[in-house]
Fold this sequence. Notes:
109 residues, mainly alpha, 65% helix
Amino acid sequence: xxxxxxPQSSELMQAYHDEEWCRPSWDDRYIFEMLTLEGAQxxxxxxxxxxxxxxxxDAFQNFDIEYCASLSDTDLEFIKENYNxxxxxxxxxxxxxxxxxxxxDTKRI
Length: 109
């Protein structure tokens, strides 16, 4: 089988392609992580987002939905200033709102 060309630009891209891309997941934490990273990608290449993935994991405690849902505006400002993950406070507020929504949806299921 012929290999895809797009992931060959970096080891991170290749690992993502080989281990995650197009693989279904029912893990809420992982789905939340992907939603967050996809949201961060707007206007950026996926390779840039993958390069910042560890910083996102650190900032959002490995994408713990309950933790993220509890973030206050002060917490979000701290993340904005101390982690290289969020461009604007507006994006951080949206992220917190998504966490709260995801957390509520998970409880209903």
